[in-house]
Structures are given as C-alpha cells and as structure tokens.
Amino acid sequence: MRESRPFVSLATDFGGAYTAICAGVVYTIAPGANVLVLSDEITPFGVREGAMLLRQALPYLPVGVHVGIVDPGVGTPRLPVAVETGRGDVLVGPDNGLLVPAAARLGGVVRAHALENPAYRLPGVSTSFHGRDIFSPAAGHIATGLDVAELGPAVEPLPLEVPSPVVRDGELTVPVLYTDRFGSLVLGGEPADLAAAFGPLPHGTPLEVAWTAPAPGSARITFEETFGGVSPGTPLAWIDSSGWLGLAVNQESAAEVLGLAGVETVTFRRPRENLTVGNGPLT
Amino acid sequence: MRESRPFVSLATDFGGAYTAICAGVVYTIAPGANVLVLSDEITPFGVREGAMLLRQALPYLPVGVHVGIVDPGVGTPRLPVAVETGRGDVLVGPDNGLLVPAAARLGGVVRAHALENPAYRLPGVSTSFHGRDIFSPAAGHIATGLDVAELGPAVEPLPLEVPSPVVRDGELTVPVLYTDRFGSLVLGGEPADLAAAFGPLPHGTPLEVAWTAPAPGSARITFEETFGGVSPGTPLAWIDSSGWLGLAVNQESAAEVLGLAGVETVTFRRPRENLTVGNGPLT
Amino acid sequence: MRESRPFVSLATDFGGAYTAICAGVVYTIAPGANVLVLSDEITPFGVREGAMLLRQALPYLPVGVHVGIVDPGVGTPRLPVAVETGRGDVLVGPDNGLLVPAAARLGGVVRAHALENPAYRLPGVSTSFHGRDIFSPAAGHIATGLDVAELGPAVEPLPLEVPSPVVRDGELTVPVLYTDRFGSLVLGGEPADLAAAFGPLPHGTPLEVAWTAPAPGSARITFEETFGGVSPGTPLAWIDSSGWLGLAVNQESAAEVLGLAGVETVTFRRPRENLTVGNGPLT
C-alpha cells in the first residue's frame, strides 16, 4: 500500500453537484489525492454550524488540506484564506471565522495567507463560485506541495462569533448551535459548564430544561450517559461524541417531540417539585 | 494501473457528515484504500431497510471491507462484530441482523468475531458514535491486512427478523420492505413466491393488489417486465433489479398515486369481474 | 504522486445508494480509477436539468469517462451510447440528448458507439437498472483503456430539445432550465441574448421580469454582477458562474420569495413607470 497520497476534504453549503465540481477541480490539479466530501449539506449561510462541523470532524480526518466554504459574503471584498495548523493541516476558505475553531483543535494557527496569487486561481474567476475558482485550485496546489506563503500576503484570521454559555448557581443557559439530522439539538456548552452550574452530576440525575422564545416551553429530562439510558420516546440531556451538551429524544426527533423549532437558547435547572410537567410556561 | 488497493464501503443512517467522518477514520488508518460511501441516508433506525440495501448492493461491489451501521442499540451492550464471508469480504457493524442477509449472498458466514480488542478502537470510545470509534477503526485495520480473529472472540451472528411471504392458492401476501426514492414499494417476495401462488404469470397479466391498514385500498395493475410496459401514470407490479417483487407507477410515485403511505403488507390476487376499480375496500 | 489514475464521474437521478452501486461496478472493473459522484440528485426524469449540469460541470473535471444517467426510457429500445469528445473524454449514457450539450463544450462529438457488445455488460442485464448493468461496466472498461469502437456500431447521437430564447426589441423571453438548491432560477439565456434585447446593460440597471403561468406575476429587479450588489432579501438578475442568466434573491430563495413555483418561461423588459410593483398582473 502506498501511504503517500495527499488528502483533501471539502465541506460546503453548496449541495452535491457544486461540491463535486470543486472535487473535480482538485483532482485536475492533484490527480494523486484522496478527495473526501465531508459535507455538502451545511445549512446555507450557516457559518456557525459549519464551524462546529469542522471543529468536530477534522481531528478524525488525516492530516491534509481541508476546504470549508460557507460564505454569505461571496462577491464582496472579504478575503479568501489558507490557514496552516500546528498539526500540519492547511484549512482553506473564507475569512469569516468558519475555519478558526477547527484550527484551534488542530494545534492552533501557525500562519495564514490570503489567496491572492492569480497563478493559483482558475483563469476568469467568477463572482459567485469562489469554491470552484479560488478555494479548490488553492487546495489542489497545496496538496501537490505548494507552500502557503506563495498564495499571498500573511493575514490574521478573523474569529468566529459564538455566544458563551451563562453559568449561574444551579442554572446553565446555553445557545443552540444547530439541530442535527435526527432532530437532536447540539448546544454551546461542555461538561465543565455543567459542573460549574450543578457540581457533580451523576448519570440519571433529573433536570428541567426551559426556553422562552419563539414560544415558552419546558420539559423534564434526565442527564444520561447514552440514549439507551432512557426508553424510546423519552427526552434526555447528554454529552455527545464531540463533547457538546445535547438535548435529544431516544429514537425520535427532540425538535419535533418537544416543539423546539426556532429555539435559540435553553436553560437547564434542578427540577422544582411544583413545576408543570411537559410543555408550558414555568410558574 | 495498480490493482492492489483495498476497498472499503460504508452504509449508514447517519447522514453525510457523520459518515464522512467514518471515512476519514478509515483513510487515517488505511490511506491506500478506496473508500466508497454506499449510503448515508438509510432511514434512521431502519435495520431491515439497511439489511436489504447491503444484500442488494454488496454483490456488485469489489471484494473488500463493508461497514454497515444502523444501530438503534448504540450505547447498550449489543456486540459490534466483523463477519467474514465466503467471497472473501469482511462485513463490519452491529450484531443486530443487519449484516446477515448480505453475508448469505456473498457465500455465507465463514467466521465472525466481536470487536473487543482496544488496540483496534480509537482511544476514548464515546457512548454514541461507535461508527467513528469502533466500526471504522476496525474496518481500516482489516483493510490493511489485520486478521479478524485479532479483533476479539468468535461469535455467532444474530439473524435478521423479516416476515415471510404468505402463499395461498391464487393469493400472495408480502411485507413492504421499504419505499425507494421514486416512491416505488419494494416487497418481501420473489419470483418463486409469485409462481407458487399463481403458477406461470406472463407479462401483461392483470392482477389486483389490496391492503387493509392503515386504511383499506386496492388497485388494478398488470404484471410487467419493465416500467415501459405501461403508459406513464399507470401502476404495475414487476421484479426489480435485485430480484424483489415491486409495486410501482411508471414515471410517478406509487406511494403517492395509490395512497400507500404507512402500508406494511399487501396482497396480490387474480382480479374478479365485480371488483371496485381504484382505491376503496374490496367487497 | 502518480498522475496516471483514470478518472470516472457519475451523474444520475437515482439517489445515493443506487449511484454508489454503479461506482462499485466501476471499481470492480477499474480498481485503479478515481471515481467521483458528480450528482446523485438530479430531479428524477429531468433530462434537461441533467444535460445542463453535465454541460456546466464537465469542463472543470479531469479528462476522463463521465457517466450521465437520466433515462425515462429505461426498459424501452432507446440506445445506450458512448460519446468521445474532442477533449478526449468519453461520455456514457442513454441516447436521449442528455450528453450532447456537454460534448459540445468539450470539443464536440468525435465519434459515438452504441453499447451492444455483451462482453462489456454485466451478465444477466436487468430491465430497469441499466446504470449498473450496461453503463457502469462500459465506463469501467473504457477507463482501463478499451476503445469505444469495441462497444458496438457507430451511431449519431440525438440532440437535446431545449426552447430557444426569444429576443424582441427591449424584451427577452427565456425558458426556466431548472431551480437550484438555493431557490435561484437558472434561465436559458446568455449575455449575448441580453445584449441583443437591451443593448449594453450596465450593472445596476433596473429591469422588470414577468411571467404568466401557472399564475401571472412580476417583480422589479436590477441586473447585477453579484448577489452582493443588492441587500439581503432583494431580487436580482445576473450571469451565473456557468454563463447562464439567473434570477435570484440575495441570501433567500427566489422561488419562494417571488412565487415562481412551476413557472416555465419568464420575460425581461425595461421597467415602465406605471408598472405595478411586486407580484400581480402587468397592466
């Protein structure tokens, strides 16, 4: 087995065919590469969701060139960048914060360069498909050994804007990062936040979770190690495989069962005895 | 051309990004492999649908390592297994019957071993993402040449539970296995079942098909060799490309046109002259 | 890096698993190939949409074997063909016009042969899955070096039927080719058609666009170089990355915002002062 093939991944909000065109551009420049579509179905313009996906996924992919494109600013003057990480990867995409959380997980930003050198773009760059015309050609050339400093001037990547969890004594408020395919909510909180709010939290501990907008609601849940800790149809909180706090219903969609569509923030508390069970405002 | 690259396929109910993470783990361990996503869109928790897909697809894929993951029991004590087939493949997934019909098509089960050896798991196995932490690392190591006996103790795979077709004289009752992307129903019956119920059945023979739940209905159809045997919008029964009996509407969705949502069992009969045509209870 | 791996792409209306089975057949015959799924989500039976996708995408993919399958005639006597292009590609698919616009972009049709030789089909061709049984085996064999003349007799590919744009003085009527994933309409007109109707058209020029079926409607827009030329939620016309005229709404779905579902033809005109703004019949 040859171990020397460069690795390129692609994650976009383009859908399948446009992402495959990007893969085709990479193969044209770097025919010896392994090219993997990490995702072509990030929610359109969902920079935060895309950033969380890259942060979660890239540590499990080979060291390589990882293209991430969620780019509401395409056609405006925002910079395209290549970000080299401590692990040895190069992340390629728009400079809107998308790549930065993943870079932090991969050993941090070593250096970053703008993609300005026309030698590493397709001829005739379009105004709308920088994935094909700028990002993929850069990725292909980096995969064949190009030093990122050849791409353009050094830059400092912009950070991603994400609300922080709010910890009070016995209460934890966290943002909803995104809803996954199974209807489970991935929340912007980690085990350390739970510990700061509640102290030690053994599996099986009852909690309540409440939200106020777009319509008030709440649910009684338990904190579990795994979906299997509750019976099918029962809600739970847990720590997902990437270390995020999650809100789920075993074998069903939490978003549907609990009525969580459009909810952007939830608060966990110790349950009170007189709490209304199920959906409805807290009294 | 080099002919020696190991081949790994992945079929899951995870959606695209989680399945691609599994592919990334395989590439990390076996960078020389060809990795193909067979499906990332099996209906969540649809063990039977996944089993039928693997049984249908794997005979057309190269001999290799085939990962199948539809796993309602993730996080519970069900075993992860590797199943070696007579053709020389190794099927990797949960021991819930998912892999067994495909193994039967690939020369039968030669031996099976539980995935217990921590040397062939990722460090820090999560409770929810065994695809990434257990199944994909095992697949990667097998692709690089690991003998399956190194993974853990020998086991006997559990069978898949599927209802059998019921044959009466002039009547065949079959389960709905799944509805495909075009809205055609794939049914748990084969040509031999048709012959047992009806004797020789030339193409063009009229039949009626009826169902009683969730709401009663029926349709007059013809048994055809191909969709092209009837005009667009007309229903038909046929034998699909994997040898299953199917119920379809030429160039339309049978599920929609005939009102088959939620139907789990259908019965084929010779048409009677006084039968109500179209949907409606049989008298 | 080895530069000699043959390249095979697949574009179908089958959905993921059936397309992956085709990829598996290619890998079985040509294990050294790079196989890329260009699309598995063309609208079922959407020959025109598929043809536009291939025409747009293939110039950006490596020279290779490109399988395109949108085949309402599967199971009828229409021919399967392989079309060699001036660039050196071979396009494989049904002879229904699907492949012809792409071939024109790739240097034109050099020669075409029907896929008749049973040596290059799977044994036991099914009536419904020619992608697996005829097209993919042909692609695999061509990728390993088979001359297309070995496949069957020379044929003349049938053209694709697409309505032409209608240019009047100050007015351009164009067909809707398809609606993309973002809800933007891709229209059958190009910059030369705009110039013929309107003369020079600087970015920022106001236009109106109107349609009469399935319900009459119109909108005031501007002609822009890029989405970023208007604020979020504002409609625009533009030239997309493949050179087609498009109708879009910045960061939203034009199909939803403007009510364009089912619209097959639109007309662009210079705006009149007394025009009703927004949806509604033109007076």
Tally of DSSP β-strands of chain A? 14
On the 0 to 100 scale, the average pLDDT of chain A is 91
Structural class of chain A: alpha+beta
Q: Biggest interface in this structure?
A: A-B, 32 and 35 residues
- Looking at the structure, the CATH topology of the largest domain in chain A is Rossmann fold
SSE series of chain A? EHEHEEEHEHEEEHEEEEHE
Taking all Cα atoms into account, the compactness measure Rg of chain A is 21 Å
Query: What does the overall shape of chain A look like?
Result: elongated
Q: Biggest sheet of chain A: strands, sense, closure?
A: 7 strands, mixed, barrel
The percentage of residues in β strands of chain A lies in: 25-35%
Unreliable stretches covering 5 or more consecutive residues of chain A: 274-283
Report the top-level CATH class of the largest domain in chain A: Alpha Beta
Q: In the residues of chain A, how many domains can be counted?
A: 2
Number of helices of chain A: 6
The name of the CATH superfamily of the largest domain in chain A reads: S-adenosyl-l-methionine hydroxide adenosyltransferase, N-terminal
If you had to describe this structure to a student in words, what would you say it looks like?
The structure is a homotrimer of 283-residue chains. The first copy, chain A, has 283 residues and is an alpha+beta fold. Chain A folds into 2 domains: 7-151, S-adenosyl-l-methionine hydroxide adenosyltransferase, N-terminal (Rossmann fold, 3-Layer(aba) Sandwich); 166-281, Bacterial fluorinating enzyme like (Elongation Factor Tu (Ef-tu), domain 3, Beta Barrel), CATH 2.40.30. Chain A is 20% helix and 28% strand. Chain A has 6 helices and 14 strands. In chain A, the strands form 2 sheets. Chain A has a 7-stranded mixed β-barrel with strand order 8-9-13-12-11-10-14. In chain A, strands 2-1-3-5-4-6 form a 6-stranded mixed β-sheet, with helices on both faces. In chain A, strand 10 (205-211) and strand 11 form a beta hairpin. Chain A is elongated and about 70 Å long.
